């Protein structure tokens, strides 16, 4: 795959409440340039909300977000969303556009490329995820795994500095998970800065180089996979690991 101009990402003392529900209670997180961090933790612990706050789909009540050491809170949120690519559990492809148009559309709107160039770059991105031959068809004719690879190609076409994945394989049939994880593994090995919310403990342990365990809106443990998986320090992480492994 290509060479990335990836950057570091920092969240500082991030707080967010939905009404009286304090979902993020002072999150500090630093992901170094070129690091793939996985975020694990029980359902409802605030993992998805953290991603949404860090790319400013939701504004934090308190705290700061830094890309490459510089606060982005005063920037145009659209600019930040170009710099941070996001892939969701639901692929969110436009059903009435062709696969190629799904990628090219973003290139025209966000990177302001002229039509022809947007299309040729879209084909290039699709080629990297092995789906160039599907450029002319509708997303619904693809398997879930292929659709997710299109969503990843679309995010990568923005030339993001950081990629977020929120349970990108959770909606897929088991036999389709492997292809998507392989693509994410390639990205990590190529030095993309990544924050990956996942239930795939194999990915967390064997591919990611940093593991962040969240519970109750705080980061409970944060460190290398070896450390967290073989020497958990808290009862909360011990319990979580015994529940999922
Ligand atoms: P996780 O991804 O770890 O399962 P979430 O970030 O989705 O956790 O949710 C954390 C908490 O925030 C939950 O209590 C959830 O009900 C609440 N929550 C998430 N999104 C919203 C929202 N848009 N409005 C109100 N509450 C929300
Ligand atoms: Mg979630």
Automatic annotation (TrEMBL):
List the Pfam families: ABC_tran
Cellular compartments annotated: Cell membrane
Fetch the Gene3D superfamilies from UniProt: P-loop containing nucleotide triphosphate hydrolases (3.40.50.300)
Lipid bilayer topology: Peripheral membrane protein
Q: Which segments cross the bilayer? A: none
Q: Could you list this entry's UniProt keywords, alphabetically sorted.
A: Amino-acid transport, ATP-binding, Cell membrane, Membrane, Nucleotide-binding, Transport
Q: Name one GO molecular function term.
A: ATP binding
- Where the record annotates domain ABC transporter, the positions are 9-241
Could you tell me the superkingdom of the organism this chain comes from? Bacteria
- The principal location of this protein is membrane
Q: Which family does it belong to?
A: Belongs to the ABC transporter superfamily.
Q: Which PANTHER family match?
A: AMINO ACID IMPORT ATP-BINDING PROTEIN (PTHR43166), GLUTAMATE_ASPARTATE IMPORT ATP-BINDING PROTEIN GLTL (PTHR43166:SF9)
Name the chain's protein. Answer: Amino acid ABC transporter ATP-binding protein
